[in-house]
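Need a sequence for this fold. Nothing fancy.
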């Protein structure tokens, strides 16, 4: 059996106005897996040596449906062994489940001689997201596999576009110790939105895509505003408007909710500024008696990759 080690990065979904259709890649945080394959054999085993609590049942692990979808498409018997070495803590708001699924399918594809394109790998990894959220979405697994920023133009048929990240572009993420379930975050959203809000959102999404394509950080900052989702979800995060204002005062280009929350993220054009924003976000929650984990680093163009063979 051949083995390799694969890293898949953390991600942030939505990017404000890009609800359910955009995501970006984080540097310096992610999942590390050891992946092994044995052709002409059958079976799947997943071993957790990461120190992070995960479901013990194979059927409850997000990796399982992603790998099974991939092997079904491959059409030949393969035995797969996966060992989780380092793991993003689930619920951290930076694509924990996506990183696992992405690393698994990427590693298997490498060991099989790359029979599948990056786009197909995203489609397989989406099945892991469906296990948790009920729908196969790509706004986290897309950037985890492809790197950079992704736009999911549509799902029927599946159409994903990778956008470049400007140089010297940094993030700060805060994960407060409060619970916001995806179900809660979905249920609070309106079924219909005013045309005026929709027009604002379309303009901002277009500006955001253009900002990344042009590597224009000022345009990215102006465009990363959410007229549809943020007004309804911000109530889950204590004094969200105060937090946002303080991050902008520290030099953030923009701040918004990461995925369905409760994590929040900010973008900056300088690493020192991103670190100050992370400290400010941590202090914001500490002042309200809420523990908080923070991350700061570079927004990355690099997705899943082999780190050791």
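Here you go.
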């Amino acid at each position: 059996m051949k083995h390799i080690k694969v890293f898949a990065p953390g991600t942030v979904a939505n990017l404000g106005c890009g609800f359910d259709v955009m995501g970006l890649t984080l540097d310096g945080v992610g999942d590390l897996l050891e992946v092994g394959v044995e052709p002409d054999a059958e079976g799947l085993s997943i071993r957790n040596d990461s120190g992070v609590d995960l479901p013990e049942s194979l059927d409850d692990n997000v990796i399982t449906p992603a790998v099974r979808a991939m092997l079904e498409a491959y059409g030949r018997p393969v035995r797969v062994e996966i060992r989780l070495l380092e793991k993003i803590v689930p619920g951290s708001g930076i694509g924990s489940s996506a990183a696992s699924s992405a690393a698994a399918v990427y590693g298997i594809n490498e060991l099989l001689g790359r029979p599948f394109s990056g786009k197909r790998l995203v489609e397989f990894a989406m099945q892991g997201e469906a296990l948790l959220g009920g729908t196969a979405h790509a706004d986290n697994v897309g950037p985890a596999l492809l790197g950079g920023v992704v736009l999911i133009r549509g799902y029927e048929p599946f159409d994903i576009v990778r956008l470049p990240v400007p140089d010297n572009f940094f993030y700060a993420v805060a994960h407060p110790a409060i619970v916001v379930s995806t179900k809660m975050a979905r249920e609070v959203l309106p079924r219909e939105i005013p045309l005026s809000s929709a027009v604002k959102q379309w303009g901002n999404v277009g500006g955001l895509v253009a900002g990344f394509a042009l590597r224009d950080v000022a345009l990215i900052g102006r465009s990363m505003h959410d007229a549809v989702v943020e007004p309804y979800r911000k109530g889950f995060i204590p004094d969200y408007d105060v937090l946002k204002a303080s991050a902008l005062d520290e030099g953030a280009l923009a701040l918004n909710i990461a995925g369905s929350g409760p994590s929040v993220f900010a973008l900056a054009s300088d690493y020192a500024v991103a670190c100050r924003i992370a400290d400010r976000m941590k202090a914001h929650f500490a002042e309200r008696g809420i523990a908080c984990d923070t991350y700061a680093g570079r927004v990355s163009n690099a997705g899943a990759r082999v780190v050791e063979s």
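For context: The longest helix spans residues 195-214.
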